[in-house]
Each structure stands twice: as C-alpha cells, then as structure tokens.
Amino acid sequence: MEKLVKLQIDGIEIKAPAGMNLIDAAERAGIHIPNLCYLKGIKSIGACRLCLVEVEGLKAPVIACNTRVKEGLVVNTKTDKIQEVRKFVIDLILSMHPLDCMTCTKAGVCNLQKYAYDFELKESSFTRKKFGYPVDETNPFIRRDPDYCILCSRCVRVCKEQDTNVLEFMGRGIESKVLTANGRPLQESECTFCGSCVDACPVNALLESDRWRKGREWEYEKVNSTCLLCGNSCDITVSTKDGRIQKINSGAAADSAEKYLCAYGRFGFDSIEAESRLTVPMKRIEGGLQETTWEDALTIVADKLRKAGKEAGFISVAGIENEDALILKKIAKNIVKTKNYDTTISLYGDSESFRNSQKADIDKADLIMLVDLNPSQWDRVLPALDASVRRRVNRGAKLIIINSSDTKIEEVAAVTLKGNVTSGLKGIAKALTGKGLKADKKISAAVKDEEISEDIEKAATLIAEANEPLILSSPSMFEASANIALIKGKVISVGLESNVRGVVLMGLTTEGKTYKEMAGIESGKGQGAKSAVKVLYAVGEAPLQARPEGLEFLIVQNSHLTDLARQADIVLPSATFLEAAGTIVDYMGRLKYLPKVIEPQEESKSHREIFIALAKTMGTKIKLPTEAEVNKAVKVKTKLSFNPFEKREGIDISAAEFIESINASVIKGSRLLWLKEAEKTVSV
Amino acid sequence: MSEEIGTEEKGKKLEDIRKEAEEKACPVQRTLYFIKEFIEGPMCSKCYPCSLGTGEAKIRLIRISQHLKNVDGADIQVLKRIGLNMIEGSFCKKGKDTGKFILEALANSEGEFRQHLSGICPKKECASLVEYAINPELCIMCGKCSEVCQYGAITGEKKQPYLSGYIPFEIRQKRCTKCGECIAVCPTVAIEVTTIQKEELVGKE
C-alpha cells in the first residue's frame, strides 16, 4: 500500500499518495487545476503556467504539475493573483487562435475552450495574430493544422518519449510552431502514424484526418476494449455513433507507458466495412463461390466433418477470444472427434512457454531485458512493446538486449549482448550467482564453465540492483530466460498474436497433427507439402496463401475474403473482434474483456455462434461458455522450473511478415493500404 | 516552449541589452529595443507569459512608436498588464526582469508614453513621429549630406564660388527614412529634427 499524506486544497482536507503531484491530488478531491501543457506520466515542463497555485508559507506561486504533495501542505488554487495570470495566458493564446469553436471538431473536449468560458473571454483583448500556416492533410491518418496549435508541446514530448522524434519546435515566441524535420509532410518524415500525438493534442491542431463533421466527442458512445491485431493486445477506446465506429484511441491509463496504439489498431477499423468483408455464407458451385444460407452452408460443413471424423483438422489463429477457443476445442474434440486442432502459435512458438509465462506490470519494471526479441514501431512488429519499453527507459528504467542479430531498440539499451543468446543468458546467470544471489543448484551446475565478459558483468549488476526486473523473451528462448527469473525477476514469453496465452490456457493445442502438417508447410520452405488431413477447417485470417495440397474439402471461417477463402469450398462469415464480446489473456497475463462494440455486419456471426450452430446441425447442443468456465481455465498457477539453457528449434518465420499476413485484410481493406504504398515509395 | 525550461544564454545577456537600451533617450524606443533584443536573444521561449507576452508587448510598442491607427491609452494599459503578469507568471528571472523593465519604463516616463499617443516623441527618436529638415540659415551647401544619403532623399546643388543662383539643399520627406546619417556628417548642425505636429490629438485621457 502506498503511503498517504494529508494536505489541504482550497479548504478541503485530502489524502493523496506520497509522490503524487498537486494536479492529480486535487483532481481526487474534485478540484480541477487548469493546465494545458501537463501530460500525465510525462515529465512536467511548466510552460503554460496555468497550474500555478499558492502554497501557504511560500512567497511565490508554484506550478502544481511539478509540485509533489507533502504532509500538511495548505494549497490555494484560486487566488486573485493566480486567476489573473491564468486569464492573461488564455487571453494571449486566444489572440493567436482561430476562435472557430462553432465548427471545430474538438469543441466540448477542448480545455482552451473550457478556460475561455470559465474566464468569460468571448474573444481576445490582445492584438489578433493571424499566421496562415499551411495545413498538412496529405495523408489519410493525421491532419496537422498549426494555426490551432497552442504550443503546449505535448505532441512533441509524446513523440520524443517513444523515440519516434518526428515533431519538433521551430521559431521563437509567438512565432514558434511545431514542425517535422524540414517541414516535410508526415509520410516523408519517419512518422509511423501511431497517432500518439493526436491523443495528446488538447486542441484541434492534430486530429484524425477523417474526423471533420463525423461528430463531436459528446455525440459518441465510448467503449473500452482491446485490440486483437497483434501480440500486444493494446487497450483501446472505441467511439461509435449511430452504430458505426468513428475512431479508436489508445485506452491505456494516461500515465502508463502502455499509452500507445499503432496505426493498425487506430486506423484499421475501416476494414470492418471493406469490400472484401464477408457478410453471407458462400459455397463453391461449378468452380465459383456463390452466396448461400447459413442453414445450407452448415449442413454441408456438418456432413463433411462427420464423414471425415478423425481425418478432419482445425486450424485457427491465436487472435480469437477465449470463449471461441473453448468451443472450437469442444467441436473438434467432442463432436467431430478429431485430435487435430492447432493454432498459428505453433508457427512461431512453443505453447508451453505461454502457459508458464508469469504476470507482470511493465510500469513497475525498473529493468527490462529483451531476449531474442526485436520489437519495432517502424517495422510494426509488436510496436506497442517497442514504444512502452522506450518510454520506460526514458522514465528511468534500464534496458538489456540479448540478441544474435542487430535490433533497432538496442540504441536505447544500457547493455547489449550480441551473439549466442543462450551463452549470454548463462553468463548472466553465473554473474548473478557470483553476486550472492541464490540460484538453484542445477542452474549453477549448468553455467559453471561459462565465461563472463565485461558486458555480461554489467548486465548482471543492473539486474542485481533492480527492484523489479522484467524479462521478456521470445517463445523459443523462454525456458532459458526463465532460468534467470528463477534467480531474480519475472519472465514473459512474448507471442505475435493477441491471445496466445488465452488460447493455450483454453487447451487449444493439438493432440494430433500440427498446424504445419495440416497446412502443408515444410520448415524453411513454406507451403507445398501435402496436408495431413482430408477436411480442413480454418478459423480466422490464416497466414496461408494457397489451399493446402491434397485437401478434399476446405472450410474458411473469417471476417474477410482472403486468398485462402477464395480457394475454399465453404466460406463462413465471422464477426471481427469489435463485433463480438469475449475475453482474452494478454501477453502480460491480464484477463481483458472485450465488449461487443458494434453489431456484426449483416449475416456475419461470432466464431462461437457459428460453432454452436454447427454443433446443433451435427445434433449436439453446446452452450456458450460461462464466465466461470473461462476464469477457471485462466487461473492456472504457474511455477517456473529449471530447464536446460537451450533454444527451441523449428521456428523460422519473419515476425514482420507474419503480423502483416494475419492482418492482410485489415490492411488491404482500410486506409492502411495507403500507408503500405507510401512506405514502398519512400523505401524505393 | 520546447521540452525543458533552461537558463542557457544565447548571445547577448540581459544586462548587455539593458545597457544598450539605456542609450536611447525615448522610453518607448528604449523599451521596444529591449523587448526586440530579448526576443531575438536571451528569451528561452519556453513559458507562455514571457514567450507570448513579449510578442504582444512588441506589437503594442510598435503601435505607440509609430502612432498607428487607433493607438490609445489601452495600449499602455496592456503593456502594464503584460509587465505585471510576466513578473508573476514567468518561470525564470529573465522573464520576470523583462516584465520589470516594462513596468519601470512606464512608471518613470508614463507622461512621455502618453505624449506618443498624441503623435509626439519628445526625445525625437521615434522615426515615424519626426521630420528632418535643413535649416537654410545654417546650411553651407557643402553637399556632404546628399552624398551620404542612401535613399536619394536630399536634393540640392553644391555651392561653387564662381557660380551664383544655386539651389539650396532640401529633404524630400517621402524618401527620408530618418536614418540619421546626414546629421552625422553635417559640419554646421544644419539638419534639425522636429516632431510632426498633429492637428488632431488621437490619444484619450
């Protein structure tokens, strides 16, 4: 429990955790201290001077954003002197502002507007300053209109904190403005279009490109959910109006390092209504796919599965919700009676590593070790992980990189160990035991011959000094990494898909043929081998281009018409993650709830509804899994145990290609396609 | 207004600027010079009262020094408000000192500020409020002023002993920028600076 201190703000006694600043403390007591440049979680700069408060006993006012609570402090937030400074500042900002609240998208959520209202400023009493800066609206994601900018630098600071460094200040005084390098459009300035700046902008200077006249914030219904497009499973806040999604923002706590959402998560929702979206079942007739009814489609599927029995196989992505996974297993195991049910996890990881992963909070980690992982915002490989780690580093955490190849994130690492990953881990284990940390005898025995380099020694010192070390490992290095966690810290296996942990905990791991065998994938060669099953049921956006060889019948159940679906015999239209309520377990081990944000398009249904209907067609009634059922499956006590320092082999896919491939329909069916084209142009 | 408030000095220090400003006799010119140099130099441009306040102060001082349309006592009131709030609200000493400079100038010479509102610069330093003229009684027609004038604003014919009927030197007001170069070279101090008399007084109060 945090230590609480007592203080008084505007005559109200309040208790706040030690170390909290006055703005946040006052907010707890329902007192709003005006501010424009303050951004929770990010170091205060005290530029706007709106949060000045008077503290009894101090001669001059202090800025609340940068003043910590102290026992017995008596704070006044609304003295005449301070109110005049606030009014003066707002008055000055208004003299440089377009003042078109009546048509401004940010009306209602704009603090400048709020303060102008509070201080009765209909317009500025100062000289009107018009700048007429050019608007950057050459991309479909972010519109930059510097005329609205109030120079709070929030965008510059969030961009810098996650190391994207696209935005910067130019000019002095009233002539300052936020620019990209050389004033180039965003797409030519290494912008990843994550939109963190849009979330940070308090006014209308940075906005989603398509927001104009799509409604103001108060018209939206806001729902918190989780993005299922990659292994980071970021928290999102979805705004809907009239049953359609208008925008998606990062939903993480404002002060968390995880306050981030990549371009896929933020802008990929267009794909829900893409042309390729499947809205009715289809079946193959005379070589072509034609629309049919659910009843007809399910009858055919039921018949094929029943006949195939143990020669049927199910493959699924690991981005499905827990409830879907539970029922999928029931269908496969209990109704179709096949042992062949596997997920994409087996393409890049050992499912046991996800079962044994611990729970952790990256915001508490003061040391992060990335083992055999290469997250990158620029390559969109676990971009949120890259951003969170960089933020933690910028907030004082130390970073250790262990990788056999070059990584971009090592630029911010305190120590980078290149070369053989297992020997790096062994070295660290040995160095740690040398520092008096207790280790299992088996570990000591396994590492006794290891040499300790200067860098290993440095890394071990950092771990030994850290309070909460967090080891994030690729699935293939998990066991070796876990040996370090047995000495100190927590260890997490990081998968590429959103619900790897949930899917494994729900038991969706094959007892028969593997994903590769069913999809006809040969290690290192890709697809081409004969499928190990006769009837294949593919759930979700399978990262497969071709219909596996030798299949008698192929069922594809997905939200979009993919290349694979075009070659299927039956196509079943499923709901997207924004259209189906359920749960997942994210990579950090948190159970996350996804509400149904919008209704599924036309006749599409959630995976589990399709499975239940299919079961019914096959003569078995299965119920929706209850919350208790999911919770029971999730609550598995993990205990780490020693395993040899070895790398699990057989994992040979490119993370970037894989993530792009499981999101192909999202990319092709949304404005993200523009981004892919733009990136191609720039790289050529 | 970039990420951190710093106190790093760029170029001129505040004290240098103050000294240079003191050389100006007109309080409006002195304050304007101080503000302009502050914005160009030591201002860190990071907190609002100072960064935005000086911008507004500069605009108001230019209005006063050039006697622009509708200039009145409100401009002086705004300057006072800026000064006060810069002292109260600025993050660092430089901002507070600049606020003090504005207030001191106003406190010591408010009368002179107000005369500007009527179009009169008593110290004859505000170029827009003065006229240059050649006193024909003192002019010896040496032509030095005409030679030095970059704007071709001085017409006349150099006196030559064997000629008579010369044209006296005269300043063409439309071309004159009041740069002061002619005054510097005139051996007889024949060039005089006079305030432009306004028929109508604009300033209130």
Q: What is the helical fraction of chain B, as a range of percent?
A: 40-55%
CATH class of the largest domain in chain B: Mainly Alpha
The major beta sheet of chain A can be summarized as: 7 strands, mixed
Number of strands of chain A: 28
Oligomer: heterodimer
Structural class of chain A: alpha/beta
The tally of structural domains of chain A comes to: 4
Terminal CA distance of chain A reads 55 Å
User: What share of residues are in beta strands of chain A?
Assistant: 15-25%
Return residue spans of chain B where pLDDT drops below 50 for at least 5 consecutive residues. Answer: 1-9, 199-205
Q: What's the architecture of the largest domain in chain A, going by CATH?
A: 3-Layer(aba) Sandwich
How would you characterize the largest beta sheet of chain B?
Answer: 2 strands, antiparallel
State mean pLDDT of chain A (0 to 100 scale).
Answer: 94
Q: Remind me, CATH topology of the largest domain in chain B?
A: de novo design (two linked rop proteins)
Residues in β-strands, percent of chain B: 5-15%
* Anisotropy-based shape of chain A: globular
Specify which chain pair forms the largest interface.
A-B, 34 and 30 residues
Folded structure, characterized:
- The complex is a heterodimer of chains A (684) and B (205).
- Chain A is an alpha/beta fold and 684 residues long.
- Chain A has four domains: 4-78, Ubiquitin-like (UB roll) (Roll); 101-273, Alpha-Beta Plaits; 282-352 and 499-634, Rossmann fold (3-Layer(aba) Sandwich); 362-493, Dimethylsulfoxide Reductase, domain 2 (3-Layer(aba) Sandwich).
- Chain A is built from 23 helices and 28 strands.
- In chain A, strands 14-13-26-25-24-15-16 form a seven-stranded mixed sheet.
- In chain A, helix 12 (421-434) packs across helix 13.
- Chain A is globular, with a radius of gyration of 27 Å.
- Chain A starts with a strand and ends with a helix.
- Chain B has 205 residues and is mostly helical.
- Chain B folds into two domains: 14-117, de novo design (two linked rop proteins) (Up-down Bundle); 127-195, Alpha-Beta Plaits.
- Chain B contains seven helices and four strands.
- Chain B has helices at 14-22, 27-40, 48-66, 73-89, 93-117, 144-148, 181-185, and strands at residues 130-134, 154-155, 170-171, 191-195.
- In chain B, strands 1-4 form a two-stranded antiparallel sheet.
- The longest helix of chain B is centred in the middle third of the chain and has 25 residues, at 93-117.
- Chain B is elongated, with a radius of gyration of 21 Å.
- Chain B starts with 13 loop residues before the first helix and ends in a 10-residue tail after the last strand.
- Chains A and B meet through helix 2 and helix 4 of A and helix 3 and helix 4 of B.
